[in-house]
Amino acid sequence: MVVLGILVLLILFMIIGMPVMQAIGLMSIAMLATQPGQLMVAGFRMFTALDNFIFLSIPLFIFAAELMIQSGLMDALVKFCKAMLGHIRGGLALVNVMNSMIFSGVTGSASAHTAGLGRMEIAIMAKAGYDRTYATSVSVASSILGPILPPSNIMIIYAGATGAVSITALFMAGVLPGILLGITLLFLCFLIAVKNNHPVSTRASWRERYQATIQVLPVLMMPAIILGGILSGVFTATESAAVAVSYALIVAIAKRRLNVKILYGCCLRAAKTSCSIMLIIAAASLMGYGMTILRLDQLTTEWALQHIHNRFAFLLFVNILLLLVGLIMDQAPALLLMTPILLPIANQFEINPIHFGLIVVFNLTISLITPPVGMQLFIGANVGEVKLTSLYRAILPFAAVSIVALLIITYFPWFSTFLPRLAGFLN
């Protein structure tokens, strides 16, 4: 009941417009104030939460994504996917999803996709005769592939929160679930295209496809280098972020798409985004410490074990809870708040922490596109210049198939554990 009360207060704080970091920080201070002497260590706890080598990769991946977007290198990606899929019925919607699957290997962020590549995709689809609201819904729905396919910023935060899960294993675990989600979105787009007789683009010639492939190779090489280097052991998942930045700089300079003004803008945007993420991590970690000293995590575990008697019911409970929490909180604070509470219970039911991490990430990612307060819906409505209420209706089929994919991943652990087990991370 105490945990429920904390969640209710957090919801009330955010309803009245209080920023997430301040709401979490206020609740944390309130919990620590109930215990003598604990307020004195609040600053130290927030500092030590950020003093983690794992989190160094977050600003670097954000900076690499900014370089790729702002230097115009994503144009080649759109042309490549259009040359390959544009001739199929509703092909530009399929191109949109394929762009997201590839682009996620550069950014690891849903917001970066919607605000960057999504703006371009919506304009192209609208010009080709697609309904602008539908084009926006496809861009918003496919953007959630970013946090699932590696490299993923939210997976890095999960690894840091647990302190016992390999980032490399999590990245590998996200590959098959991400592909599954991508296929379900492609299938849905095709069905909608056939039903509504969406336009068909002119089939590209083999010469045009070859030229598009040559132009996009520098972009496609980034996710290949990141994943290849991690899996081969050349560098760690954290070091891969520095490699990504170096590669993005080299490509942008070689193509003469980078100048001082663009570089300054990339640095500024990456710094702002990183600071907001780090402040949330620090505040949420302080709340986690407050829950620990009040034994709220233990009390919650005991309650769950008394009322939930099997793994199937627990996983269903987790899915429902996280989908609801994700409606009112962003991914990072929701993950940092719920992981210390739910992970010990998952351990009691012998659920693999890598599989559980994918369930948590997938849930909170779907919440980004779930009405009424999915964060990507607000970004998409602004970028696509459409009414938010219209976008609510258009996004529902995509949210539904995403939940179907979530249930498959939840009750068939093979999707999450096959590649990590193949690489030797699991027995």
Would you kindly provide a written description of the structure presented here, covering whatever features stand out?
This protein is mainly α and 427 residues long. It has one domain (38-422). 78% of the residues lie in helices and 0% in strands. The radius of gyration is 21 Å and the shape is globular.
Q: Quick gist of this model?
A:
This protein has 427 residues and is mainly alpha-helical. The chain has one domain.
Task: Spell out the key features of this protein.
single chain, 427 residues, mainly alpha, 0% strand, globular
Q: What is the percent of helical residues? A: over 70%
Main pleated sheet: none
Overall mean confidence score, pLDDT: 81
Distance between the termini: 38 Å
Topology:
Blueprint: H1 2-15, H2 20-33, H3 42-50, H4 57-70, H5 74-85, H6 91-107, H7 110-127, H8 132-143, H9 153-162, H10 167-173, H11 175-196, H12 206-232, H13 237-254, H14 260-293, H15 296-307, H16 311-328, H17 331-348, H18 353-366, H19 375-384, H20 388-411, H21 414-422
